[in-house]
Design a protein that fits this description.
368 residues, alpha+beta, seven-stranded mixed sheet, 39% helix, binds zinc ion
Length: 368
Amino acid sequence: MMNEEIPNLTAFDEAALDKAFALLERQAREGAAALSGAEAVEAFRLQWLGRKQGRLKEVSERWMKAAPPESRKALGLRFNALKPVVEALLDAALGSGPTDAALAGEALDITLPGARRLTGAEHPITRTMNEITGVFAALGYSVGVGPEVETDYYNFECMNFPPDHPARDTQDTLVISGQERRPRRDRLLLRTHTSPVQMRTMEAQPPPVRIVIPGKVHRNDAADATHSPIFHQVEGLCVDANITFSDLKGTLDHAMKALFGSAVKTRFFPSFFPFTEPSADVQISCIFCGGKGCRKCKNSGWIELLGCGMVDPVVFAFAAQKQPAYDPKKISGFAFGMGAERIAMMKYGVSEIGKFYDEDMRFLEQFA
Ligand SMILES: [Zn+2]
């Protein structure tokens, strides 16, 4: 198509050359002015400057061939002058960018507020467990973990629960279905406490042992203001030669002061747990009224917070089946456990346990 438009040059004097090149330049300028979009610009470049079929090349070859020798220099000079003109037109077409209409279509309102990205924060339960774990870590305890789906053996049998203990009933414990044909000790259930990790730790290593065990536990409880079928415990176990009840009292008194402030007092009451003997409930002086008596402590001045006791020799005997060093005649130890939710509710003044699981950002953001 372009070739047809190439005029044949018959005269090669200065005036004829000026006229011919002025026509070429006008064609280039008109073509460049009509360009829109990167594809059109590239087509224009090929059309004019293409190495094989470009218009400048074809015109120059044809005119050079037709020109008498004395006019070739003038012809060449004019081609050399025309090429940068076409290149400048190309640059201008490329640099002109999108049209006003295209820009309007992509307009951004930079005055709109940006999308707010939430930064992560510890859930109050996680934070509470980390705080408790941190207190014991500072005393040299390491952190123990274990499976949430446990066997009857680890959850109950080795913790000295008798076969008819009510905790083993499905009314209290969530069990995995279809286990009836297995031996009782192998039946799977959702652990009701973190105590199985005590046994798993003792089976894995000889004494001394100092571990703190934060973890999720499950019970077949109806949810109410203070109960949830899922909650979290932090347990601890200390086993060595000559561990006494005094060590237990000193350790827990220190831990409660570290968690709730140095003014907090502790007191121990006899209690019962299958896996400790003797066992005790631990109360701390009310952190809300300082012990004077208020609604939170039911006017007693004390709040019950955790259970503890000296590890029952029967439990050591189970551990000794795999680690003979747990000989109840040579070693002793204590264990304790507390509910993370209960402590978090006290620390943060939360009256309903369900608030922790509601995924209500307005509630959770208070702790971020
Ligand atoms: Zn009180």
